[in-house]
Amino acid sequence: MMESKKSWFNKAALRLDLHNSWPIWAGYTLFWLVAASFIATNYYTSQDFQHQMARFWEGCTNLAITFGVQVYGCVVAVWLLRGLFHSRSALAIHALPVDRKQLFAAHLISGVVLNAIPTLALALYGTARFMGSGSDLVLGFWTLVDFLGASWLAYLWAFGFALFCGMLTGQLVMVPVLYGVFSFLSISLSTLLDSMFRKFLPGYAPGNLLGDLGRWLSPWYSMGMDVSWNNSRFDSWVTMLVYALAGTVLMGAAYQLYRRRPLERAGELIIHRPARVVFRLGVALCAALFGSAFFQLLLGVSDSVIAVYILMIICGGVGLLGTRMLELKSFHVINFRLMGEYGGVAAALGLLMVILNTGGMGYVTR
After folding, report:
1. How confident is the model over 43-90, as pLDDT tens digits?
2. Which end of the chain is more exposed for a tag (fewer CB within 10 A), N or C?
3. Average pLDDT for residues 306-335, to the nearest whole number?
4. CB-CB contact of 147 with 60 (8 Å)
5. What CA–CA distance (Å, rounded) separates 56 from 37?
6. CA 282 – CA 16 distance, rounded (Å)
7. Are 304 and 333 in contact (CB under 8 A)?
8. Helix axes of 69-80 and 100-130: crossing angle, nearest 10 degrees
9. How far apart are CA 54 and CA 61, in angstroms?
10. Which backbone phi and psi does 44 adopt, to 5 degrees?
11. What three-state secondary structure class fits 229?
């Protein structure tokens, strides 16, 4: 007797994803057709007919990496995962005789198809527009290949990262929030810490390590800043390949989180319990650093270590308290556990200020 085999993805789930997703890919296709018309007009010069097509694809690649693909990847992920953010729909979907592996695989295939349709439409539009225009078609073709490769690598990162963010939270609106914050958090923190070190450590000279680390951990910013061309050929493949690999790894991490996702917690701020503490402490520390920097400028107390520390612990406490309120959806959140977390935040901030004030990093202090 022949053994029955179970497919690694569910065809019905795939058809449902693609059938309901037409507004997403149709809107993105329209965006590219409008943007491509402006790019073609902008890159058209009567003195340089030969490089029109190549420059057109350069402009499309730059726009895709710095904006288009980054936003679209998040939108696609949110759309495909939308059923997980309501308890009733999540439980109804997973009550069907379909395992999570099949559903996740269907979402991945749908994500690929939803990017392939607008990309193919743009490729056909760009090729048809410059055919017979006197442009160098061979150079234009290879620049088109560069566009396809670079945009797809950027999409792998954006889509994988957005899926990972979606598996951390139980609220739909939090997915783009986490996606946007994490995309620029590191470069913002490195810039803020660099400014703080220069302020309190007169012997401190800005180095490359902190800035490079912040840049590489801020993918959207890094990809946008590292886009470079050499004789109409894309020249930032290393950066794109690194982030595409990271996006693929995050897809695997998202699948592992999905397998362990408690469906009854849909609607909660952070789904997984271990991640809640990390999230609260991270928000508190970021609120302390960014909030104190804002009030330093507002109140003019930037040179006082004690005043800066007081601002930090106040802002950090507000951030921790606000995050806990959002988690529990209640104002009654103060308990011994929260006070312990606040004590840890205050101690970490105090250690930072002691190091800055005593020259513990090896630099000369005031």
Report:
1. 654 456 567 888 899 999 999 999 999 999 999 999 999 999 988 888
2. N
3. 90
4. yes
5. 10
6. 38
7. no
8. 150
9. 11
10. -85, 125
11. strand
